[in-house]
Design a protein that fits this description.
Order of helices and strands: HEHEHEHHHEEHEHEHEHEHHEHH
Helix content: 40-55%
Largest sheet: 8 strands, mixed
Protein name: RND transporter
Structural class: alpha/beta
InterPro entries: AdeT1/2, TRAP_DctP_sf
Keywords: Signal
CATH architecture of the largest domain: 3-Layer(aba) Sandwich
Organism: Acinetobacter venetianus (strain ATCC 31012 / DSM 23050 / BCRC 14357 / CCUG 45561 / CIP 110063 / KCTC 2702 / LMG 19082 / RAG-1)
Distance between the termini: 66 Å
Pfam families: AdeT1_2
Length: about 325
């Protein structure tokens, strides 16, 4: 009798431990199913089967709609830009802080740290009665400054000019205002249109956006790409952990970490395809001036609670590890 009871219990326990969950994930990619981001998530979905979760991916070329469907519970997870995902997790969302990640070496350190097991508690959050978890971070690329007129290559010349910004990112609006520019509120779905048709004189975008958004139309014959990294852009995978198998987030983050080098290799290959005729490099003096302005803005945004203070401290350490002679390394404040 007892043997039969324990045998039945063992079968029940094994059945529970191998139970497969099913989850739907909204995936934003400018290029839809043919884009790099969506293809990464297809690989991820295959791996998720080994973590006892069947994933149904839903493709979106409109990021706002992807987030809306996630908010309404139509998806159990969403893969979108970290700027938009910051409202679910400030720690991971702050990797994209203005001017905080000026090189790919620093970006790789930042993402590796954010996904480290030691930060598991920082990657979980609660909003109201809902729990969220960051299950992955990927690199999109350093966002450079696109200008319709190559003469717009100093801070002073930005004053009064129309700068397209992502309307949901308070940081961009505040920084453009502090530089004396006029913020043109946009979304990823229409920011390039505003630049291309002349509603905006300036915008920031990674190399990944150049071809799909046809930014050559906005640049024309007189435009330029100023290769100063205003911001580093990443993607966050946000999930509702209760909809996934146990330890799913930890397994997922380990997978994202394992593919980080190949992720950066793809991004740098895309960046190498940017037309050389448009590229303008700033002088070292101007770079330092920009960095100082962005540093002041970033510190102000952290005090206002927009960026996570722990992440800001980590990013400064990463910058000063890679560039020990940087002016800020002897300064406090971050």
């Amino acid at each position: 009798m007892n043997k039969g009871f324990f045998a039945l219990g063992a079968v029940f326990f094994l059945g529970m431990s191998t139970q497969t969950n099913a989850a739907r994930v909204c995936v934003f990619d400018l290029l839809g199913k043919s884009g790099e981001a969506y293809q990464v998530m297809e690989e991820w979905a295959l791996m998720a089967k080994t973590w006892r979760t069947e994933i149904d991916l839903v493709s979106y070329q409109n990021e706002a709609q992807a987030e809306k469907d996630f908010e309404q519970g139509k998806c159990d997870g969403v893969y979108m830009t970290s700027m938009r995902a910051r409202s679910y997790n400030k720690f991971a969302g702050s990797v994209d802080a203005i001017g905080a990640v000026p090189s790919y070496a620093i970006a790789q350190k930042a993402i590796s740290f954010a996904l480290d097991k030691r930060n598991r508690h920082r990657l979980s959050s609660k909003i109201g009665n809902q729990s969220f978890e960051v299950a992955g971070i990927s690199q999109i690329g350093l966002a450079y400054i696109y200008v319709k007129d190559k003469k717009l290559n100093t801070i002073e010349q930005i004053k009064g000019k129309k700068f397209a910004v992502l309307g949901y990112d308070e940081a961009q609006k505040i920084v453009v205002k502090s530089l004396g520019g006029q913020a043109v509120l946009s979304d990823i779905s229409d920011i390039a249109k505003k630049f291309n048709n002349g509603q905006a004189d300036i915008m920031a975008a990674p190399a990944y956006a150049y071809k799909p958004l046809e930014l050559d139309k906005g640049l024309g014959n007189d435009g330029a790409i100023i290769t100063f990294p205003a911001v580093n852009m990443t993607m966050d995978l946000i999930i509702r952990p209760d909809k996934f198998s146990s330890n799913f987030g930890e397994n997922s983050r380990a997978w994202f970490l394992s593919r980080l080098k190949s992720n950066f290799a793809v991004i740098q290959r895309i960046e190498a395809d940017l037309p050389a005729k448009y590229k303008i490099n700033l002088s070292n003096e101007d770079k330092t001036r920009y960095q100082q302005i962005l540093r002041e803005a970033r510190m102000g945004l952290t005090k206002r609670g927009i960026y996570d203070a722990t992440m800001m401290s980590v990013l400064k350490r990463a910058r000063c590890t890679v560039e020990r002679t940087n002016f800020e390394c002897s300064l406090g404040g971050e």
